[in-house]
């Protein structure tokens, strides 16, 4: 049996959540982060949910949870009061009195890896997924610096410490080659190598590395500080913007093709059961292999699914006219699996992440989809 990790504080839990789901990914209109709670307090018992309802708060307080992690922000739309006699204020007051913090990860969790659409795609069994609407990768500069051979390490290290040389999960990345540098110091110069009036040739390393564009001033300062030359030779090239590995939705492929009718049935089997059924719009006999998904309300990405070559696009909250017009424009077949049901698989992902850092984590299993009363077939009425 592996030793139990020490109980983390709330600020440590938040740091891990924001490492996986960076707040910078959230839409400008969103309200993610800590809603209530003391970051210095323990957060050893966590309940994960999609929506913060009274039933969720009941379960959290009954279990002695010290933190609720929710997908939907309780205070996403502006409020002027959290008085206890208002619906949202009542929840905030109950949580504070019960010593339970509340944290929300919404559109940042929609876009990040190990996020909402990743969990949905995994539940459906999709392979080789990429973002359906990718965010641009961080803007990068490419730095090329000429350094005398004996000083290359000190210049590289200084630039690395300023934030250069990072590629994904790798650090201190660079490429170098040795060549011959030439310069002629003139009056007023104070050369580290050579003399005024003497043409000088030096064995130099050409160092190449990338750095985030917003760190340009820091990297340049580090370069000048560490370089032995009075006037170091360097170039800075702005890299072309490329698609990143995060963004809304995912598109991938099924392990084996199936018909659209079979895919709708498959989605109904593997997705969590809400009160209302999964419904599809398209030819039941059409072959499905490439599948696009987006957890929650995703009708804005129908065009992206079509552009990605998807055979079917599964999301929630599809509207009649949007579906009708999209199918007329030869969009992919469309599946509405419900808002809650397409986001709920993410809860298990969050639970796994927080368990890894020592939290006792449970998932609120009952559907919080507000549509709970569904009419049966007419012949049964």
Automatic annotation (TrEMBL):
<keyword id="KW-0479">Metal-binding</keyword>
<dbReference type="InterPro" id="IPR015867">
    <property type="entry name" value="N-reg_PII/ATP_PRibTrfase_C"/>
</dbReference>
<feature type="binding site">
    <location>
        <position position="343"/>
    </location>
    <ligand>
        <name>a divalent metal cation</name>
    </ligand>
</feature>
<dbReference type="GO" id="GO:0046872">
    <property type="term" value="F:metal ion binding"/>
</dbReference>
<dbReference type="InterPro" id="IPR002678">
    <property type="entry name" value="DUF34/NIF3"/>
</dbReference>
<dbReference type="InterPro" id="IPR036069">
    <property type="entry name" value="DUF34/NIF3_sf"/>
</dbReference>
<feature type="binding site">
    <location>
        <position position="339"/>
    </location>
    <ligand>
        <name>a divalent metal cation</name>
    </ligand>
</feature>
<feature type="binding site">
    <location>
        <position position="72"/>
    </location>
    <ligand>
        <name>a divalent metal cation</name>
    </ligand>
</feature>
<comment type="similarity">
    <text>Belongs to the GTP cyclohydrolase I type 2/NIF3 family.</text>
</comment>
<dbReference type="Pfam" id="PF01784">
    <property type="entry name" value="DUF34_NIF3"/>
</dbReference>
<dbReference type="InterPro" id="IPR017221">
    <property type="entry name" value="DUF34/NIF3_bac"/>
</dbReference>
<feature type="binding site">
    <location>
        <position position="71"/>
    </location>
    <ligand>
        <name>a divalent metal cation</name>
    </ligand>
</feature>
<comment type="subunit">
    <text>Homohexamer.</text>
</comment>
<protein>
    <recommendedName>
        <fullName>GTP cyclohydrolase 1 type 2 homolog</fullName>
    </recommendedName>
</protein>
<feature type="binding site">
    <location>
        <position position="110"/>
    </location>
    <ligand>
        <name>a divalent metal cation</name>
    </ligand>
</feature>
<dbReference type="GO" id="GO:0005737">
    <property type="term" value="C:cytoplasm"/>
</dbReference>
């Amino acid at each position: 049996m592996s030793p139990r990790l020490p109980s983390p504080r709330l600020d440590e839990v938040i740091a891990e959540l924001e490492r996986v789901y960076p707040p910078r990914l959230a839409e400008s209109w969103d309200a993610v982060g800590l809603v209530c709670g003391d970051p210095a307090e323990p957060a050893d018992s966590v309940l994960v949910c999609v929506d913060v309802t009274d039933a969720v708060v009941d379960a959290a307080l009954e279990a002695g949870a010290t933190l609720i992690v929710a997908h939907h922000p309780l205070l996403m739309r502006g409020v002027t009061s959290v008085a206890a006699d208002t619906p949202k204020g009542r929840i905030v007051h109950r949580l504070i009195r019960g010593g339970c913090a509340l944290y929300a990860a919404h559109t940042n969790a929609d876009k990040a890896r190990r996020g909402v659409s990743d969990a949905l795609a995994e539940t459906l069994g999709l392979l080789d997924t990429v973002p359906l609407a990718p965010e641009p990768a961080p803007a990068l500069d490419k730095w090329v610096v000429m350094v005398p051979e004996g000083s290359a390490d000190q210049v590289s290290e200084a630039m690395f410490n300023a934030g250069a040389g990072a590629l994904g999960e790798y650090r201190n990345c660079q490429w170098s080659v040795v060549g011959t540098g030439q310069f002629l110091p003139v009056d007023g110069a104070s050369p580290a190598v050579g003399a005024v009036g003497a043409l000088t040739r030096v064995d130099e390393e050409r160092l190449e590395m990338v750095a985030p564009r917003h760190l340009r001033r820091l990297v340049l300062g580090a370069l000048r500080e560490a370089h032995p030359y009075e006037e170091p030779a360097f170039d800075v090239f702005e890299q072309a913007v490329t698609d990143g590995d995060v963004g809304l939705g995912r598109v991938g492929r099924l392990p084996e093709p199936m018909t659209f009718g079979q895919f709708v049935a498959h989605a109904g089997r593997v997705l969590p059961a809400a009160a209302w059924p999964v419904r599809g719009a398209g030819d039941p006999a059409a072959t499905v292999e490439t599948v696009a998904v987006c957890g929650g309300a995703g009708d804005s990405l129908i065009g992206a699914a079509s552009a990605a070559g998807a055979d079917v696009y599964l999301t929630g909250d599809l509207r009649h006219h949007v579906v009708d017009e999209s199918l007329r424009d030869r969009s992919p077949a469309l599946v509405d699996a419900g808002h809650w049901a397409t986001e709920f698989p993410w809860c298990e992902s969050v639970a796994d992440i927080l368990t890894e850092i020592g939290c006792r984590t449970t998932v609120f299993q009952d559907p919080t989809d507000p549509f709970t009363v569904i009419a049966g077939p007419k012949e049964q009425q």
